[in-house]
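We emphasize that the prediction below concerns an isolated chain of 251 residues; any contacts that depend on oligomerization or on bound cofactors are therefore not represented. The input was used exactly as deposited, without trimming of termini.
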Amino acid sequence: MSSLLLAISFLTIIPVYRNRTAREEDMANSLYYYPLTGLLIGTLLVSAAYLSELLFLGWAGDAIIIVVWIIITGALHLDGLMDSADGLFSGRDRERKLEIMRDSRVGAMGVITLVAIIFLKFTFLTTLAYTDKLWVLLISPAVGRWAMVYAISCFTYARSGPGLGKSFGNINGPGKILVASIPLLATIILLMNWEGIFILSLTAAIVLMIARWMAGSLGGLTGDTYGALCEVTETLFIMITVIAMTLFAGI
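Result of the prediction step, given as a token string:
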């Protein structure tokens, strides 16, 4: 239970872990519950969508959902997205990219990437029917946090010095990502059937390529790139769902 509470406290603004100090082992064990925490975030987003539908807010309701999404997560992953974009798209060498990512100031590429991600999430959400939007909002945060578990478990840490991403310690083997996948897969099969597995597989394949590109550019991954992958994965899942549903409807 403490590992679940730590995952919730780390990934959201809900302070259920209180002021306890987490060890590397605790942080590593909390990875089991990342997708489950994503489902909790999704449940809050579904609640926001329900209220928006109740008030007939239309696109304004989708904008509110995006704002609630940002507030719930404390913009933690968006911050990582901006820092990662500034470094990865700088055209500099590996060490300089890592320095840029550590800089608290946000550059042009970070702002552009932030706007693009939020715009894509919003516009693709507006195309979904209300009932479809509910399960997409429930599942996409879980898929994003599954991508974080994959990144932490399967790639080396890029920095030699301290960093937030290093707090998970050295993780060996696929155990954590396999266990973490169970609630995600169960939810997708329950709500989306075989179409959901197809959408998840396609999303995962693209995310794996992006993660490999990031790791190749930086010599590994960092805490910032974990957050960036989460945001990119959420957005890809929504986009691929909309496109796939359009294609399925035409078959």
